[in-house]
TrEMBL record:
Family assignment from sequence similarity: Belongs to the small heat shock protein (HSP20) family.
Protein name as catalogued: HSP20-like chaperone
Keywords: Stress response
Organism expressing this protein natively: Neocallimastix californiae
Compositionally skewed regions (Basic and acidic residues) per UniProt: 72-106
Superkingdom, taxonomy of origin: Eukaryota
Span list, region Disordered: 46-106
Feature: compositional bias, Acidic residues: 61-71
Signal peptide: none
Length: 160
């Protein structure tokens, strides 16, 4: 699997700096934001894979899985006999759902999964005390207010 590297958009207007991170399928609980004393904002987290690694098992593991599936099918048949109210169509539907989940094979996986970390230098005129962040529809929006930078006033230094 390819390492996940979220797409980022940086922008600004006269009042704010904006960071937008595309984090599809992620929640705010899966994302961490930190800022250090050097004014570096880091966004990190992990996008968990939905890909089932069981496809990489050896033939022995596949045989064991088939045996388990056969045992499950036998149990289902016994339960069907005991429960006369269950129709044949419901049984077939349940078997098909189980088989689809156990036998899913991906032909193309274009999505990326894994851990990520992105860091940004925050400008001197940014208000580090009032950073706002919200997550909506898989997009993290960070808003950093601008403040007036400390003015470097020229002053005369007396030489002694």
């Amino acid at each position: 699997l390819v390492e996940f590297n979220p797409k980022i958009n940086l922008s600004e207007d006269e009042n704010n700096y904006y960071i937008h991170a595309d984090l599809p399928g992620m929640t705010k609980d899966q994302v961490k934001m930190e800022i250090n004393k050097d004014r570096i904002l880091t966004i990190s987290g992990e996008r968990k894979s939905i890909y089932d690694n069981s496809q990489n098992k050896s033939e022995n593991d596949e045989m064991e899985t088939e045996d388990i599936n056969e045992n499950n099918e036998e149990k289902e048949k016994q339960e069907t006999k005991e429960n006369e109210e269950t129709t044949e169509s419901e049984i077939k539907k349940n078997k098909n759902e189980d088989n689809n989940n156990n036998e899913r094979k991906y032909s193309i996986i274009e999505s990326s999964y894994g851990k990520f970390s992105r860091s940004f230098n925050i400008p001197e005129d940014a208000d580090l005390e009032n950073i706002q962040a919200k997550m909506e529809n898989g997009v993290l929006e960070v808003i950093i207010n601008k403040i007036e930078p400390p003015k470097n006033q020229n002053r005369t230094i007396q030489i002694q």
